[in-house]
Specification:
Strand content: 5-15%
Largest sheet: 5 strands, antiparallel
Radius of gyration: 39 Å
Structural class: alpha+beta
Shape: extended
Number of strands: 15
Low-confidence stretches: none
Length: 675
């Protein structure tokens, strides 16, 4: 369980075998290529233009996948009630295997399908343009029809309503709410008539005939919102509307045919996804080609690989070419190398927590084995419930057996499943199952009392757990220094702080018991002499830590400055320890919410005379406890990680490493296997 030892490969071979070497290294899945060091007699290739073209192809294919999915969903929704049109099924990845599994030979030679798929892309682009054009025409016709609906019942074309020598004749419109006011106004004029034609969408259309001597009618009517109708039609509006409806129907038919042709590509989505990953692999090959040092007929390539896989690397090269010279070199102490971490199955899921912060640097100590223990413990104390822990454990077991591929959701559920064991154990200590106090009914006092009744007990435990966690961080800091052969700094500057914290726990142990005020714990009191001796040890080790804090600093002033700085660091340590009160806070909040849920269910049951009370109580218990668990786990996941990142990693961890990613292995849609 450590960071895997890496080595560096340098290869010289002929250009004609470059592609076969790349493919063979992809199959080996144990080599990460790097930029080759500049060589005087060599040059490098400019592949930027080729990569840009590939990026355009990838984007085009991704866009096609999204477009066909969208159109298929719209097509199915549109024809949902039409039983004569069959629903078009989109390719669905399974829960167990979300990535499409293919073999290397098929994947590496997938380029033989490029011409056909590119042709599909061209055809789809034309169909997309046609849909856009038809939709635009349809929208225009529908807008015209909507405007025409105001006058569709006119008995004549709008041009027929023209002024005469003595009268104004106008098509007008106004809000229907003003009809009564306008009709009253019309009645005031003896030579004005208003004939209502139609009312559409709260707009009234009418014909106004007014003698020219009473033209002021229009000015007064304007105050009520009566204006000239803006719609014009040179033919009978009803005939124009029928023509527009025929045109819209024709466009709908064209649109339906074109959409059906787009939807027919739904079966191609799976192949297009493989094509995206294939193009991405080609892009990586081009990137690697740009990192090579080349001559007219040869090239120089450099790469990293795990030392334990040297035989696989050698075989991959031998299978690809008969003309190669290789050199295998160790990584220097100050030389960069990508990080590959190998841990057992229990620790493996916890690597995701570290990687979210930053992968470890190749030359430092792997924090995951130690971090996983404390993440496990703190998670258990934050959840602290047998029922909740059992649900998490079941979820983890389900993910392990149901999801066949290594995915993010599988890793997270496995992490929660492992931590569920901790929640069960701590739940047993508290006697809590779905926030029901199981020991109360048995008349037994739990080893650890409920946090809402004895809050100081859990607060003291949280602070002690925090001190132990911080001491583990300091121990890791010592391990880093010992690895770098800084023995004095490790034992004289760091180890005294561990003694300080441990002796401090012993020194204040009895005081902490008094603060907790939990009677079953009274029997574990320490003799007073032990506390006094521990206090002296605490002060002495603190003095040693402060005095020797400057070890490793340059110059006398640097050492003095570091020593004084360590005194200020005591405040930081105190602040770090207080951060662990969040363990108590999260446990208490989840327990209180769970208790309220249980009280509500009891209220629903009442005296038990109504069977429906049990049904509603059961529904409330299931839904509310699942919600409480989900919210609690989300908070625990975040705050537990925060304790690792700040209080633990802050003591020793550098991070800023780069994960080892084998050449061609980071695919998006497919999982490439040997078979």
């Amino acid at each position: 369980m450590a960071i895997v030892t890496m080595k560096k490969l340098t290869l010289i071979s002929v250009l004609s075998d470059k592609e076969s070497i790349f493919d063979s290294l992809v199959k080996s899945a144990c080599v990460e290529l790097k930029r080759s060091a500049d060589i005087d007699a060599c040059t490098s290739s400019d592949v930027s233009a080729q990569r840009e073209r590939l990026a355009e192809k990838i984007a085009r294919t991704e866009e096609a996948i999204a477009y066909v999915k969208q159109q298929t969903e719209l097509y199915n929704a549109k024809n949902k009630r039409n039983k004569s049109v069959a629903e078009v099924k989109l390719p669905q990845s399974s829960f167990a295997r979300p990535l499409t599994e293919i073999n290397y030979d098929y994947f590496l030679h997938f380029g033989s399908n490029s011409a056909r798929i590119d042709s599909d892309m061209d055809a789809l682009t034309l169909l997309k343009q046609q849909i856009a054009e038809i939709t635009a025409q349809k929208t225009q016709k529908e807008t015209e029809l909507k405007r025409l609906s105001l006058i569709v019942n006119l008995p004549h074309p709008t041009s027929w309503y023209a002024d005469t020598e003595s009268s104004f004749v106008q098509l007008v419109q106004f809000n229907d709410s003003e009809r009564e006011s306008i009709m009253k106004l019309t009645a005031e004029y003896d030579m004005a008539e208003l004939e209502i034609i139609d009312t559409v969408r709260s707009k009234t259309v009418a014909v106004a005939v007014v003698h020219k001597s009473q033209a002021e009618f229009f000015e007064r009517a304007l105050t009520f919102g009566m204006v000239k109708c803006p719609v014009a039609c040179d033919v009978l509006p009803k005939v124009a509307a029928e023509d527009l409806n025929r045109q819209i129907a024709g466009l709908n038919e064209q649109l339906g045919v074109t959409e059906a042709r787009v939807v027919s590509y739904a079966d191609n989505i799976s192949e297009w996804k493989i094509y995206v990953d294939y193009l991405a692999l080609r892009d990586k090959k081009l990137s690697a080609e740009g990192d090579l040092q080349i001559t007219d007929k040869t090239f120089v390539m450099e790469a990293y690989y795990p030392a334990e896989d040297e035989n696989k690397v050698t075989k991959a090269i031998e299978d690809a070419t008969n003309y190669a010279v290789t050199a295998y070199d160790d990584i220097g102490e100050d030389e960069f190398a990508p990080t590959l971490v190998k841990n057992n199955k229990l620790v493996k899921p916890f690597e995701s927590i570290t990687n979210m912060y930053s992968p470890p640097d190749y030359h430092e100590v792997d924090p995951n084995p130690v971090m996983s223990v404390f993440y496990f413990l703190i998670f258990g104390f934050m959840v602290a419930d047998i029922g909740y822990g059992a649900l998490l454990l079941v979820a983890g077991i389900f993910a392990t057996f149901a999801i066949k591929q290594r995915t993010g959701i599988k890793t997270m559920l496995q992490l929660f499943g492992i931590c569920g064991l901790s929640a069960i154990v701590v739940g047993v200590l508290f006697g809590s199952a779905f926030c029901f106090p199981i020991y109360n009914n048995l008349g037994i006092q739990p080893p650890i009392p409920a946090p809402d009744k004895y809050p100081m007990v859990m607060m003291v435990l949280s602070l002690i757990l925090g001190i132990v966690h911080i001491c583990a961080g300091i121990s890791c800091k010592m391990a880093v220094k010992i690895k770098r052969k800084q023995y004095l700094a490790a034992w004289l500057a760091d180890f005294p702080w561990i003694i300080t914290f441990i002796s401090l726990i012993v020194a204040i142990f009895n005081t902490a018991l008094d603060m907790a005020a939990y009677e079953p714990w009274a029997s574990v009191r320490l003799p007073d002499i032990v506390g006094r001796v521990a206090l002296y040890v605490c002060l002495a080790s603190l003095a040693v830590g402060v005095i020797f804090a400057g070890l490793g600093s340059k110059g006398f002033l640097g050492k003095v400055k570091s020593s004084f700085g360590s005194v200020y660091g005591i405040i930081n340590y105190f602040s770090d320890v207080m951060s662990y009160i969040r363990v108590f806070g999260l446990m208490l909040s989840s327990a209180l919410v769970g208790s309220v849920i249980n009280d509500i269910s009891k209220m629903l049951i009442g005296d038990g005379s109504m069977p429906t009370g049990y049904i509603f109580a059961g529904i409330v218990l299931v839904i509310a406890h699942l919600f409480n668990l989900a919210m609690g786990v989300l908070s625990v996941y975040i705050h537990n990680g925060r304790l690792q990142y700040v209080e633990f990693f802050g003591k020793f961890y550098t991070g800023e490493g780069q994960l080892f990613i084998p050449f061609g292995s980071d695919t998006k849609y497919v999982l490439v296997k040997d078979k």
